[in-house]
Amino acid sequence: MIDDQSVLEEVRFVENNPVRWRLSSLAEDNTWSSARARVTGEQDAVLTDGFFLAAEIPDGRAYRAGREDEAVLRRARERMKTGRPSGDAEFVRTLEAVAGRRLGALPRGRPRKNYVQENLT
Q1: Angle, nearest 10°, between helix axes 4-20 and 70-82?
Q2: Which of 41, 75, 80, 114 has the most CB atoms within 10 Å of its CB?
Q3: Close Cβ partners of 92 (under 8 Å, ≥ 6 residues apart)
Q4: Per-residue confidence of the chain (121 residues) as pLDDT tens digits?
């Protein structure tokens, strides 16, 4: 499915957004950040009990301060703009099978005539 590094990088990306946009000086200071519940241990009305990556990210502050993988961040930013699922190709194919519909982007431009004819029959 989705590779572990992508999940970890995207958690870091999302939790660092309030700091990146200067909404707060620390991610856990932002009322709407999942970082708040993870760092303080306070119950959060939105998050379910237990963070599913708690074992992989035991110290959220130190993790968020680490270096970000630019390739993963570029992919996350691009997918956020288009509403496409983030993750590697295998993960997207798995989601498509579960959803029963195409979630990945089609090739750009007008389809070739033989592509249209093949898919109409």
Answers
A1: 80
A2: 75
A3: 84, 85, 103, 104
A4: 445 667 777 788 888 888 888 999 988 888 888 787 777 777 776 665 666 666 777 777 787 888 888 887 787 788 778 888 877 788 888 889 999 998 887 888 887 777 555 666 5
Q: In 3-state terms, what secondary structure has residue 68?
A: coil
Query: Considering just the CA atoms, what is the radius of gyration of the chain in Å?
Result: 18
Cβ-contact 75, 86 below 8 angstroms: yes
- C-alpha distances out from residue 33 to 17, 99, 103, Å: 9, 28, 27
69 by Cβ neighbours in 10 Å (0-12 / 13-18 / 19+) ranks as middle
Question: CB-based contacts of 43: which residues, under 8 Å, 6+ apart?
Answer: 37
- The CB density around residue 99, as the number of other CB atoms within 10 Å, is 10
Domain extents in the chain: 4-99
